[in-house]
# Entry
Amino acid sequence: MSVDKVKDSDRIEEIARLRLHEDEVDVVLNKYVQEASREFNLPIGLVSIVLDDVQKFAASEGLKGWIAETQGTPVEWAFCAHSVRSGEPFIVEDSEKNHLVKESPLTTMEGIKCYAGAPLISSRGYVLGNFCVMGEESRSFSTEEVAKLKDYAAKAMAHIESRAAEPA
Amino acid sequence: MDKIRNYNLEAPSKQKTLEVFTGYFNEEYAESLWNEACEATATNPEAESLTELEQIFTYFCSIKGKVGVQGMSMKMRLMTYRNLLALQTNQSN
# Structure
């Protein structure tokens, strides 16, 4: 029986080592998601860390209402969890037509329609979550745009690892 | 406690917490973590209210390693449940 990579014990240890489950406002990560949101002309940008049972936003731009307050959602709703499983970018042009996310409350209740996320991969090779942008209208994403998201993910991951190397 | 209907979200509970822990630890250790948290927070081991559960989950968050990650997961699920319950209650009034 294959184990769900989201629940992988070593991956969860890596999240703990990098202190990504802790509540911390990070101005650098916030700057990256603001830039990405502007660049893609989409209202929402996130650094989403996929813990074992929720996704937790290490940085966010454009959230409203209860999600802005909670700064995360249950993992079974999370678009980003699909990248943790595949290790690849996850692209959704129209969430209502995508079998992986069409029943997620983020689609059915919160109106998320388009999504593009690139995996945050640690230097030890664990996929910890995604750097992503999303919006409420359907939209396609070019190869160049996905490459740009990968660059943002790499920059965010480098910052997270340098931050963890500093004394707590 | 009620399920949040449109979001298919169950209320947090002791049983669910122990199920999460036993995905990573044996049952005896999971139970000992629960009892340790209840003792440290002066909470009833059969805690059911969101306030009591939040105290327990906040204690788990203070522990290093996987338990801390799981504690944050449980706490955020509780916050999600509480926020959506408030919205649901407001809408039905």
About this structure: The CA atoms of residues 47 and 77 of chain B lie 16 Å apart.
